[in-house]
Write a structure and sequence with these properties.
The protein is an alpha+beta fold. 26% of the residues lie in helices and 28% in strands. The N terminus and C terminus are likely disordered.
Length: 295
Amino acid sequence: RYIGDWSSDVCSSDLVDMHEDLNKLELESGLKISYSIGENRKVIKSSAFPEIKFEALNDSRETTIMISTSGSTGDRKLVIHSQYAFINNAFDSKNYGDYREDDIALAFLPLNHVFAMAMLFTAVCFQFKVFVAADSDVCSLLGYVDKYHITRFNGVPSILLKMTEMRDGYNVSSLRCAYVGGAPCSKSDYFKIEKNLGIKLISVYGMSECIGISTGAFSDDSSLLADSVGRCYPANDIKILDDGEIMVKSPSMCNGYFNGSLLTKNGYLLTGDIGRIDNDGFLHKIGRASCRERV
């Protein structure tokens, strides 16, 4: 991690807040952070880390980002991703997410989470703003929505449900839509979130190893999205094995694991999830594959 030279005009109260924030960062990171105040109370230097030089990539498929799996189904793994994968996922979702240049997205998921990184790349591709949350407790998130007129975010069902329960006293009328994924969301919870937050909820399905597998669309009827994880992304190919396991081939697949290889079959990623595709092309996740040897 690198903090380079930076400057900002600050007043006395800002200096107190900044000092507290830097102390907190020191404690959390174990790093020593120094800064100096120049003329007219201008912060002129932050020298926590040595300067790092990055060479431009000649191939967008080269390793750009390493993220960690959640570890929910085994040991955590480092997943190697490329710009190519994230940018392909962004443009593959262009006609589904109803992105607008005046959108202000709220980023509150950890940036080592594929769902969070996907939002940042999408914002760059479609030129909308992102507000990165300093705190991720629900009251703070609702406060950010109210104060900064947030229009969209990516989130997991549990956080969205807490927002519906604690939204009294906050103006959330600026919210238009949210992608929901990362965990199952029941029909009743889906409709509760849509109703109480006044948003369009778009179900998505992805994983650390494949950024986007399927997605709903802003234009889809909510009754279809409440019971599915949307349709296959246009650039993807999804197959269901005889035992029900979902496998996918996609330009948004990772390059592999750090010091490890993916579970694949004929170039398709074995997701470890069980599902089915209905007559309208919507994918339904049923559960996890049983522990077994997969080839």
